[in-house]
Specification:
alpha+beta, five-stranded mixed beta sheet, elongated, UPF0145_dom_sf, UPF0145 protein CP967_18935
């Protein structure tokens, strides 16, 4: 279903529930806070660009770029959770990711969703 309890960062807290769905079974939305997002842009490392170019000739996974994208996605998600927490939310519904090129120098990843306050029913 796409449920991820997320504490973010080093605190280890799991006080913000992040889901890709419109609702959370067994919970009701008490208050809609609004849109929240986390954004990060990562520049490309010259070495990884050269390695990716060579790897693309023979095919296969670009592990260095995959690792960078996973780290970047996680950072965007952490920022989304921080913003939701700061606005008083305990959940983010309809979480999505948008990935785009940033002026030919890097990759932009934006995590966004709807911050809400939920409670058990």
């Amino acid at each position: 279903m796409g449920i991820e309890e997320y504490g973010g960062g080093q605190t280890g807290r799991t006080d913000v529930l992040v889901v890709t769905t419109n609702d959370v079974p067994g919970h009701r939305v008490d208050r809609v806070i609004g849109e929240v997002f986390g954004l990060t842009v990562r520049s490309r490392h010259l070495g990884s660009q050269i390695g990716a170019g060579l790897k693309s000739l023979v095919g296969g996974e670009l592990r260095g770029l995959t690792k960078t994208l996973v780290e970047t996605r996680n950072q965007a998600l952490e920022r989304l959770v921080e913003q939701a927490r700061a606005r008083g939310a305990n959940a983010v519904l309809m979480t999505r990711f948008d990935v785009s090129e940033a002026a030919d120098v890097g990759t932009e990843i934006c995590a966004y969703g709807t911050a809400v306050v939920i409670s058990g029913t």
